[in-house]
Design goal:
The complex is a heterodimer of chains A (360) and B (467). Chain A is α/β, with parallel strands linked by helices. Helices cover 56% and strands 7% of the residues of chain A. In chain A, helix 4 runs parallel beside helix 16 and helix 8 runs antiparallel to helix 9. With 467 residues, chain B is mainly α. Chain B is globular. The chains are: A alpha/beta (360), B mainly alpha (467).
Chain lengths: 360, 467
């Protein structure tokens, strides 16, 4: 009798446990279904959040459809270092009267680079040549990544590029871990529609994104950083100045070296973007901007690009033999950006290099 | 670490797994204590020294000195009380009193040099010092035995669900729960999960979403129209209720999931038909603490009406000051003290009138709400002059400003009031608790997903952390 009662209790416990597990699974499933639904609805109904400089340049470029033969696509180093007027003058001198446009976007990351590439390829009038720069490593300031821009470029349709960006991180392990953690959090936030109903039904003013001097809009996308005058640009003089030690490090070719595996991964990822252009009949070139602190880091990536794309023209200006020319304090504004004089020097050299490419 | 942050969920999942994984009581308590210190240290590791000092002082005094057999029992008791008050005084009130002294002296023509200390206010200091004091007082009154286990006293003071913003738990309620291992089968999981989600929604989805609009109004009240200012005041009433009761709900639910029971801290206070009832339903753990450890020892209701009113006023003004060192909180306490005195007079003189006034409870509720929201102006305003400016608009319904609030406040307030009333009237939570497991789970999943979608992406700290 007692044994039968104990058995009955055990059976009853097992039923309760099974029921609890089933209920938990049901709860999780409904949670996921609703969260994903909200996220999908928001992405399909809300416009892309504004991205400073990118939006303006896309609009200007579309308006000037067919005007430009060469497009420089990259991060703020492209934005601040490539002066199309100087490049065009240099090209004209060597018998190539072409017009170029600076499509540099501050803090451009891999998913955004892919997005930009798609925009350029899908435009009815395509340039003859696109010069692509390696975008910055996707990392680390979480609040930036949680901004509208960060969230948009880590959701749904861009998840592949974001994951690839994490996988091909070329910095230190600590940065890679942070990048992985932050990207996963942002992707989860986007997948779960975090805050999307609040934004729709209780909209508050989002934090002001940084603004830039818009003089670049009448200057083929370029404006020297030292003449910008925006508060956050002026602040960089204090928060991240170019130091003598940084320049010395560049001249010595010292610093963190991107691991071979990551460099190859990044090169493959960049090649995929270049293939997009080539498939649309657009010629491509790879551009490496001078950056004393990243010279050692950049070399393996450039080498991997050359290995993967033997015929790819590579405009590499971050090399030891050019260090004396570029790593001069008079040419730099902050730790990562050359001033107007630096941009003029580099742009003339870019024109010369492009002349060689064109002639070949 | 906030209850609405992802890292808290990770923290709690680890703590709960470890806790229920341990079979006996002693290691569980040690683990909970360590987790509580990690939780508190996540704000600022330096705060731990203060809580350890507070714990050590009260444990030692209660254990070894506060007993009828000890010759210096009274002295030790008062040393502990003054020790706790000194901690509060230095960390919370020093600058306020120093500034007030300088102002007072300058009024009398004496110039004193301004000397303020750059002191960081430790999170939750008012809560845990009050808990610590109640422990020593209860031992002295022989309501409870002095605890022999240091771990028990330390856990009573530092238990992470209630550590930083209450509810203020009494030793007599909590220490007995530490005597035996909690049983997992006894945990009411469904009610705890509902309570946590409800608190989460109140705090993260309601309070945090309306906070920016309230902040705008209180930052520049002169610029806004009458309707906007009134909306701002009412929205603040909703914000602070959702913020604080939401935190309490989550604290109570978190403790429940570990097998511990905390007292209720809020009971639909905005539906109270009088200010007296309001104080039985708002921040119950603080109001009952003030009643038991301040108002009654001062003489309570046993003295003449004048002295009783004086005690009531003193209790409420000190209650105001407990929230923070500023004249705004003092006035807030005074307004509530005044209302309680008036309410008591009214109740004694016009007791027979109640049955003859149609909808007496509704009028009482509206009058109570009017006064409570008026007092909130002083609680929230950035400066005393702002508070006067907003009060003038609230009372006269005339504002010099013209700007409107960029938020549909009235539909929101009506919806909030309706849900609040209906939920209370029909005991919605009790019904949800009784729902079949599968229906409950599905509904919970849907509600949690909606809650996350309504979560503003920038976290805001709980209002009551500053106290």
């Amino acid at each position: 009798m007692a044994e039968s009662s104990a058995n009955s209790h055990e059976r009853s416990d097992a039923v309760v446990t099974r029921r609890s597990l089933r209920a938990t699974a049901l709860g999780l499933a409904t949670f996921l279904a609703i969260a994903l639904l909200i996220s999908a609805w928001h992405r399909s109904s809300a416009p892309r959040p504004p991205v400073a400089v990118m939006d303006e340049k896309l609009a200007d470029y579309a308006q000037a459809a067919g005007t430009y033969d060469i497009v420089f696509l990259g991060s703020s180093q492209t934005f601040r270092h490539v002066d199309p007027a100087v490049v065009d003058a240099g090209l004209a001198q060597c018998g190539h009267p072409l017009r170029s446009y600076n499509f540099g976007i501050p803090a451009l990351r891999e998913p955004e680079l892919r997005y930009m590439a798609e925009q350029i390829v899908e435009a009815p009038e395509k340039p003859a040549l696109v010069v692509v720069q390696n975008p910055i490593r996707a990392e680390t300031v979480f609040s930036n990544m949680m901004s509208g821009r960060g969230r948009y470029f880590r959701g749904g349709d861009h998840t592949g590029a974001a994951l690839k960006d994490v996988q091909c991180y070329t910095g230190r392990r600590q940065g890679q871990a942070r990048s992985l953690f932050n990207n996963l959090r942002v992707m989860l936030a986007e997948a779960f529609g975090l805050g999307r109903l609040a934004e729709t039904f209780v909209p508050t003013d989002p934090p002001e994104p940084p603004t830039y001097n818009e003089a670049y809009r009448t200057n083929a996308g370029f404006y020297p950083v030292d003449q910008d005058g925006s508060d956050h640009i002026v602040d960089r003089l204090e928060t991240s100045p170019m130091t003598a030690a940084d320049l010395e490090q560049g001249r010595a070719g010292e610093g963190f070296v991107a691991p071979a595996g990551s460099a190859t991964c990044r090169a493959r990822q960049l090649t995929e973007t270049l293939d997009l252009f080539q498939a649309a009949g657009v010629q491509v070139a790879y551009f490496v901007s001078p950056a004393p602190k990243d010279l050692a880091h950049d070399r393996p990536i450039t080498a991997a690009m050359a290995d993967l794309n033997p015929d790819l023209p590579i405009l590499d200006f971050n090399t030891l033999d050019r260090a004396d020319r570029y790593f001069d304090p008079a040419l730099w504004y902050d730790a990562a950006h050359m001033n107007g004089a630096g941009a003029a020097t580099l742009s003339a050299d870019i024109a010369e290099a492009l002349c060689t490419v064109m002639d070949e | 670490m906030l209850f609405v942050e992802l890292r808290f969920f990770v923290f709690f999942a680890i703590v709960a797994a470890l806790y229920w994984g341990l079979r006996t009581n002693a290691p569980r308590k040690v683990m909970l204590l360590a987790a509580s210190y990690v939780f508190y240290g996540a704000w600022d590791i330096r705060f731990l020294t203060l809580i350890l000092f507070c714990t050590g002082l009260n444990y030692l005094v209660a254990r070894y000195y506060v007993g009828p057999e000890h010759p210096r029992s009274k002295l030790a008791f008062w040393a502990a009380i003054w020790g706790n008050l000194a901690v509060l005084g230095v960390f919370k009130y020093f600058n306020f009193f120093a500034d007030s002294l300088v102002d007072l002296a300058s009024l009398g023509g004496v110039s004193l040099s301004q000397s303020t200390l750059n002191i960081v206010l430790p999170v939750g200091i008012s809560f845990y010092t009050f808990q610590a004091m109640s422990y020593v007082i209860d031992v002295r009154r022989r309501h409870i035995e002095a605890e022999t286990s240091f771990t028990n006293v330390a856990l009573y003071i530092a238990f992470f669900p209630q550590l930083v913003a209450g509810p203020i738990v009494r030793a007599a309620d909590f220490l007995p729960q530490l005597k035996r291992a909690r049983v997992r089968a006894d945990v009411a999981i469904q009610p705890a999960l509902i309570l946590f989600l409800l608190g989460f929604i109140k705090k993260a989805c309601i309070s945090d979403n309306i906070a920016p609009f309230v902040d705008e109004i209180f930052a520049n009240p002169g610029a806004y129209s009458t309707e906007a200012v009134i909306s701002g005041v009412l929205l603040y009433g909703v914000q602070i209720y959702c913020d604080f009761s939401g935190y309490s709900d989550m604290a109570i639910a978190t403790a429940m999931l570990l097998g511990y029971q905390f007292p209720k801290n809020f009971d639909a206070p905005y539906l109270s038909p009088s200010i007296t009832v309001f104080w039985r339903r708002w921040h119950i753990s603080l109001s009952s603490w003030l009643r038991d450890y301040l108002y009654i020892p001062l003489g309570g209701n046993r003295l003449s009406p004048a002295k009783r009113d004086r005690n009531l006023m003193a209790t409420m003004v000190l209650g105001g000051l407990w929230h923070g060192a500023s004249y705004n909180f003092l006035i807030w306490g005074f307004l509530h003290g005044l209302a309680l005195i008036v309410n008591r007079e009214w109740a004694s003189r016009f007791a027979g009138l109640k049955g003859r006034i149609p909808l007496a409870d509704l009028w009482g509720t509206l009058a109570t709400l009017y006064w409570v929201f008026l007092a909130w102006i002083f609680f929230r305003a950035n400066t005393l002059s702002d508070a006067w400016q907003i009060t003038k608009v609230y009372v006269t319904l005339q504002s010099p400003g013209t700007e409107d609030m960029d938020f549909a406040a009235w539909p929101f307030l009506i919806a909030f009031a309706s849900v609040h009333w209906l939920g209370h009237r029909y005991q919605a939570l009790d019904r949800a608790e009784r729902a079949p497991m599968e229906a409950f789970a599905a509904l919970y999943g849907v509600t949690a997903a909606l809650a996350i979608a309504f979560l503003p992406t920038g976290y805001r700290p709980f209002v009551y952390f500053q106290f």
